Amino acid sequence: MEALEEKIIEELKIFKFKRNSLSYEYLIDAIKIVSQQKTTIKDFLHYVYKPISEKYDTKPDNVQWCLIKLINLMYYNTEEEIIDNYFNINKEEKLTTKQFIIGIARKIDDN
Q: Whole-model pTM?
């Protein structure tokens, strides 16, 4: 396993995810893509979801749907305070999937 992937997995341990799902693999790949090339945030569908869909032989829309469901489930299972403190947001705010992925990628880049 490469160093970047290890950093991502370590960072994601802060949150409660179902780690044995394909969606979790999509999330790791999405964070890796954004972390390696910042310009991908301009068009998530083409530059993030599409390469992942090609890797796993599925559709970009399916990757996006799976990631939305995964993040929503994480919100349900992770204490609000952990999410709020990590992303420096207040309780009324809820991150989009894109914001979550970008936020994790930035934290990894900062460390």
A: 0.94
